[in-house]
Amino acid sequence: xxxxAELPHVVILGGGFGGLKAARALRRAPVRITLVDRRxxxxxxxxxxxxxxxxxxxxxxAVPIRSVVRRQRNVRVLLAEAQSVDPTRKQVVFxxxxxxxxxxxIVATGATHSYFGHPExxxxxxxLKTIEDALEIRRRVLMAFEAxxxxxxxxxxxxxxxxxxxxxxxxxxxxxxxxxEIARQSLVSEFRNIDPRCARxxxxxxxxxxxxxxxxxxxxxxxxxxxxxxxxxxxEARVTSVDRDWVLLGTERIATxxxxxxxxxxxxPIARSLGVPLDxxxxxxxxxxxxxxxxxxxLVIGDLAHYDEDGKMVPGVAPAALQEGRHVAKNIVRTxxxxxxxxxxxxxxxxxxxxxxxxxxxTIGSRIPLWGFLAWVAWIVVHIFYLIGxxxxxxxxxxxxxxxxxxxxxxxxITGDGAVPLHGASEAQEGAREEGxxxx
Length: 440
Fold this sequence. Notes:
Elements: E1 9-13, H1 17-25, E2 32-37, E3 41-43, H2 48-52, E4 62-64, H3 65-68, E5 75-79, E6 82-86, E7 91-94, E8 99-101, E9 104-107, E10 111-113, H4 131-150, H5 154-160, E11 162-166, H6 170-186, E12 200-205, H7 216-228, E13 231-235, E14 241-243, E15 246-249, E16 252-255, E17 258-261, E18 265-267, E19 284-285, E20 291-292, E21 295-300, E22 305-306, E23 308-309, E24 312-313, H8 318-336, E25 350-356, E26 359-364, E27 368-371, H9 372-386, H10 390-406, H11 427-435
Parallel strand pairs: 1-2, 1-9, 2-5, 9-21, 11-12, 11-17, 12-13, 19-22
Antiparallel strand pairs: 3-4, 6-7, 7-8, 10-18, 14-15, 15-16, 20-21, 23-24, 25-26, 26-27
């Protein structure tokens, strides 16, 4: 009888949807599992924009990884950051120099922001991938209204009340709709010097339509819903420069102090250490069983994997990552039993994007379109279902009900640096601060 130390060692990099699903799917397998993540929590990313929009708090959509797998005796959790993988030695190397041996490796480290060759834009236009990102976006959005309240110059005030979102995929559409609702519903009557309803929300998309991955009919529905909320939607709008005080579209300069990035992603840099072919976004070109060429013991899933099925790439969405996580777990068991591996087949259960209160678009499966109130209800049901933990489901339902009936967002705390940023302040305010005098 094998001891625990003699059991095949499965290392899983990443505690997101795919990695966590793979670990749980191996709960009865004769293996020992090490789940590695640089954060101690599993994050429900599809609702991250709601933290940025002050509708939910971080704890509502995140849960400690150790808590999720606490009853699974064949799993240990390591809080560490993987730097590279050595497939020849079957080792994962951490940023602190330590190495971890494996028999099977599941790489599910996800993706990060892509600024299309302009990393200098990141400080002016934060993306949305982590809780820290969401809190920073929330801080910038709420601080913009506070700064506008203090501003006496109409042009500078207008710049503070202009919000630009670059990229009109699901994240960009959801952020644009949420900020429009904050301005037109949640903050009404709370300021004396400004009318929040005068805020401009500009959504920029380089392609001909918003939600380009959705059917054209639903893209058009989403555009109309956004415009009904007051969002200025601009398609085929190519951003040529981003600064802390403006966005440049060719020769047009938009004065703004709040720019949010939702335009693109690139794969986790650990993919480059695998020594295998990558696509333009840095994703790993995987085999039908989701392994890498020449190393069947290394399996790549989620946003890090590029897998084409029927001429289309499997999308980097949560349902796909969950299916991939379950599939690679089953293939590991099949390998241990001496059985051939099965190719992965993606089942498209549909996808939804919410535009705002009672407004959403999406599909059930790949063919049945929904929009409006019905799509919004379906979006709620799907997201509650996929949330991990009864507590989180209950809290999210409570917060959504509170928001729906009161129009009030309960997480409007400005965290981090609470001081009004200098850039965009009036010249008198800047001069007073530089001289150490009060500006009021």
